[in-house]
Amino acid sequence: MRIVTKFILAVSVFLSAVLCAQAQENEEWKYQLPKECWDAMIAGEHQIVAKYFAPSVELTLPSGSGLYSSKQATVILRDFFSTSTVSRADIGNERQTGKSIMMIATFEISNRPYRVYILTQQGQNGCQIQKLRIEEDK
């Protein structure tokens, strides 16, 4: 009888975990930045993030900052992601002012905390990243 009870308990725990994971997966994305773009940033997929760049992007990374064309910003972001892997990411806040939306998040990159600021604006082609700042959180 004990083995049957343990088996039923194990199956119950497993099914609960599956149902919780499925509920989280089905949770609605509530931010203006497209989920595809957010997921690409976490995965280091610079080409997908670049699809959302405005024609010019203010980019700030630990290696420097500047105003770049979307093509230049893509190359710089590619170089950043080639040496940096995001291990954790959390969205802290999102605020809208007019057509501009600022998302503030935290990333963990190489066991160090970073603050991430993403300024987007709704344009004719949808959401466009105007500014992307990834700074070490001190």
Structure notes:
By secondary structure, this protein is α+β, with helices and mostly antiparallel strands. The chain has one domain (30-136): Nuclear Transport Factor 2, Chain: A (Roll). It is 38% helix and 43% strand. It contains four helices and six strands. Mean pLDDT is 84; it is low at 11-26.
Low-pLDDT segments, ≥5 res: 11-26
How far apart the termini lie comes to 57 Å
Q: If you average the pLDDT, what whole number results?
A: 84
Given helix and strand content, the structural type is: alpha+beta
Compressed to H and E, one letter per element, the order equals HHHEEHEEEE
The CATH architecture? Roll
Shape: globular
Widest sheet, order of strands: 2-1-6-5-4-3
* Percent range for β-strand residues: 35-45%
Features:
6-stranded mixed beta sheet, 138 residues, globular, 6 strands
Please render the helix and strand layout as text.
Elements: H1 2-26, H2 35-43, H3 46-50, E1 53-61, E2 64-69, H4 70-83, E3 86-97, E4 100-109, E5 112-123, E6 126-136
Parallel strand pairs: 1-6
Antiparallel strand pairs: 1-2, 3-4, 4-5, 5-6
Brief digest:
With about 140 residues, the chain is of the alpha+beta class. The protein has helices at about 1-25, 35-45, 45-50, 70-85, and strands at about 55-60, 65-70, 85-95, 100-110, 110-125, 125-135.
